[in-house]
Structures are given as structure tokens and as C-alpha cells.
Write a structure and sequence with these properties.
Blueprint: H1 5-11, H2 13-20, H3 27-32, H4 37-49, H5 55-62, H6 65-71
Helix pairs in contact: 1-2, 4-5
């Protein structure tokens, strides 16, 4: 079965970027630059609203404050390119 590139990109944007070799930051990458838990929850809600993470994963992250505390503040803004990620 053949797919048109634009249709595939529209239907499966994350998979398309993986196949094309573009490594996009994930929700965890964004949480690492947060300064507070409330900021982290805003990021999680945003990713859930956009459909980039599931409701279950969102609830898991929000219900584990100790996990969030261990993730947030572990990276400064601008370190994406150093790790090979696109801003």
C-alpha cells in the first residue's frame, strides 16, 4: 500500500518526524526546564490538549509529585540542540 507523503505526515506527525530523522523534544524534555510543579502541570495539560500524550499518561505524571520534583529543573533552556533535539 502506498501513501502520499503529505497525507501520512498529517495523519501521523510524530511517526513522520521519526522516520525523517527529526528528533523532537518530548513532554519530559519540556518538564526538565520547568521551575515549579505548577508550571510542569501546565506543560502536561498542554501536551494532553494537543493529543501528544494520552490522558492516562497525563494523569500518571500529575499524580506523582515526587517524580515531577525529580524531573523539573534538571536542564536549562537552550540545551536542546546540545542533546541533538530541535527547538
Amino acid at each position: 500500500m502506498e501513501w502520499k507523503k503529505e497525507k501520512f505526515k498529517k495523519m501521523f506527525p510524530n511517526l513522520f518526524h521519526e522516520i525523517e530523522g527529526e528528533n523532537l523534544p518530548t513532554v519530559l524534555d519540556h518538564l526538565e526546564v520547568c521551575k515549579t510543579i505548577s508550571e510542569a502541570i501546565e506543560v502536561i495539560d498542554y501536551f494532553e490538549k494537543r493529543g501528544e500524550i494520552s490522558k492516562e499518561y497525563s494523569n500518571f505524571l500529575k499524580s506523582n509529585p515526587s517524580l515531577l520534583k525529580s524531573i523539573i529543573g534538571t536542564r536549562e533552556r537552550g540545551e536542546y540542540t546540545r542533546r541533538g533535539l530541535s527547538d
